[in-house]
Design goal:
Catalytic activity: L-glutamine + H2O = L-glutamate + NH4(+); hydrogencarbonate + L-glutamine + 2 ATP + H2O = carbamoyl phosphate + L-glutamate + 2 ADP + phosphate + 2 H(+)
Bound molecules: glutamine
Subunit structure: Composed of two chains; the small (or glutamine) chain promotes the hydrolysis of glutamine to ammonia, which is used by the large (or ammonia) chain to synthesize carbamoyl phosphate. Tetramer of heterodimers (alpha,beta)4.
Low-confidence stretches: 1-9
Strand content: 25-35%
CATH class of the largest domain: Alpha Beta
Largest sheet: 10 strands, mixed
Order of helices and strands: EEEHEEHEHEHHEEEEHEHEHEHEEEEEH
Strand order of the largest sheet: 8-12-11-13-14-19-18-17-15-16
Family: Belongs to the CarA family.
Number of strands: 19
Enzyme class: ligase
Keywords: Amino-acid biosynthesis, Arginine biosynthesis, ATP-binding, Glutamine amidotransferase, Ligase, Nucleotide-binding, Pyrimidine biosynthesis
Distance between the termini: 70 Å
Mean pLDDT: 94
Helix content: 10-25%
CATH architecture of the largest domain: 3-Layer(aba) Sandwich
Length: 406
């Protein structure tokens, strides 16, 4: 158990010392068993394991609905040390689950030390039914994911340490691949709602949108709050509609622009019902902006293809180049699928590219007012370099309005 590495007692050299019993296990589909100490929900849960390299913002990560169906291992060892608070939640309904199944940590979670802390991470995980394990060699696990790709696994927590390892191995090996899974119904809204909250402004808390120049319909595939806040801040009146809304429902709301949200699962599986709607909206030349899953689905709607990545991109310091300006921005990422730029049709250009691996990070149509990015310009958590994309969307709506008026 790696939590005790460096502790002489853990070397087994001292008389009377007893190896602590594992109270949690992470069992990978290939049969690898990692032992550690349980935290969070006393339960067991299946998921795809991905690693996130962000050093801050674990609460936003754990509440990002795009992680539904996944177990997150943090490469940063000290997670939980600032507790959790009321404000930094990314699910729109603060009490709703983001669908994250589990959390894998190196160090044990300490008492929170931060003026905003309202709860200990352990209690918060329990309340949200997220299973946790600490004391894991997360560097070795990350190296394994880099080598072999993101594995399926079962994470289990039992204070009595009573695990049927063979049964867990079988369960992990039988889990379906993330490719082919539509997980949007697990996390997306089923009712329409308005959004007028703007970002957090110290010391006043969240603000309210003062004026709205543009009417935006946001299609919710698992949207993050800070995206809606930044749309409101950019002067948009935001109406959020369920992922199952038809083009007719959306057009009836008379939008100046349509926003395609982030979300979990395989875009190709989700696209089955979302893509025809997006296609129809594009044909009406409605200004469109997509983020992450929304980007992937815009690509699918114009005839492009997406593919599963080996280890994906999950972190808060990825360099991306905006090819339209040449500028490099440091961005937040969370995706396990990517658009294959070779499949983009002639009426689309690649606008952004990852400087880590050259993968596609953005596109724009040349014959219709639509663009999208793979990364997370809402920066929650993460750097704010890409906030300009919300302005770009507003400018696109202004240009289209001016064209119509002329
Ligand atoms: N953040 C997102 O929207 C993720 C999109 C998609 N589920 C992926 O993993 O690639």
């Amino acid at each position: 158990m790696t939590a005790h590495e460096g502790n002489p007692a853990a070397q087994g050299g001292q008389e009377g010392w007893v190896e602590p019993r594992a109270t949690a296990v992470l069992v990978l589909a290939d049969g690898t068993v990692l032992e550690g100490f349980g935290l969070g929900a006393i339960a067991q849960a299946p998921g795809e394991v991905c690693f996130n390299t962000a050093m801050t913002g674990y609460q936003e990560i754990l509440t990002d609905p795009s992680y539904a169906g996944q177990i997150i291992t943090f490469t940063f060892p000290h997670i939980g040390n600032v507790g959790v608070n009321e404000e930094d939640t990314e699910t729109v309904n603060a009490a709703a689950s983001s669908g994250v199944r589990g959390i894998v940590l190196h160090a044990e979670v300490t008492q929170p030390s931060n003026w905003r802390a309202a709860k200990h991470l352990d209690a918060w995980l329990k309340a949200r039914n997220i299973v946790g394990i600490s004391g894991v060699d997360t560097r070795a696990l990350t190296a394994l994911i880099r080598e072999n790709g993101m594995p399926n696994a079962v994470i289990a927590h039992d204070p009595a340490g009573d695990f049927d390892i063979e049964a867990l191995k079988k369960e992990a090996a039988a889990l379906p691949d993330m490719a082919g899974l539509d997980l949007v119904p697990l996390v997306a809204a089923t009712q329409r709602y308005d959004w007028d909250e703007t970002p957090w402004l110290w010391p006043r808390g969240y603000g309210k949108r003062e004026s709205a120049a543009h009417r935006v319909v946001a299609i919710d595939y698992g949207v993050k709050r800070n995206i809606l806040r930044l749309l409101a801040k950019a002067g948009c009146e935001v109406e959020v509609v369920p992922s199952t809304a038809s083009a007719k429902d959306i057009l009836a709301l008379n939008p100046d622009g349509v926003f395609l949200s982030n979300g979990p699962g395989d875009p190709a599986a989700t696209g089955e019902y979302a893509v025809p709607v997006i296609r129809e909206l594009l044909d009406r030349k409605i200004p469109t902006f997509g983020i992450c899953l929304g980007h992937q689905m815009l690509a699918l709607a114009i005839g492009g293809q997406t593919m599963k990545m080996k280890q994906g991109h999950h972190g808060a310091n990825h360099p991306v180049q905006d090819k339209t300006t040449g500028k490099v921005e440091i961005v937040s990422m969370n995706h396990g699928f990517a658009v294959d730029p070779a499949t983009l049709p002639a009426n689309a250009t690649e606008t952004h590219v990852s400087l880590f691996d050259g993968s596609n990070c953005g596109l724009a149509l040349t014959d219709r007012p639509a663009f999208s990015v793979q990364h997370h310009p809402e920066a929650s958590p993460g750097p704010q370099d890409s906030h300009y994309l919300f302005t770009r969307f507003v400018e696109l709506m202004e240009t289209e309005k001016a064209k119509k008026a002329a």
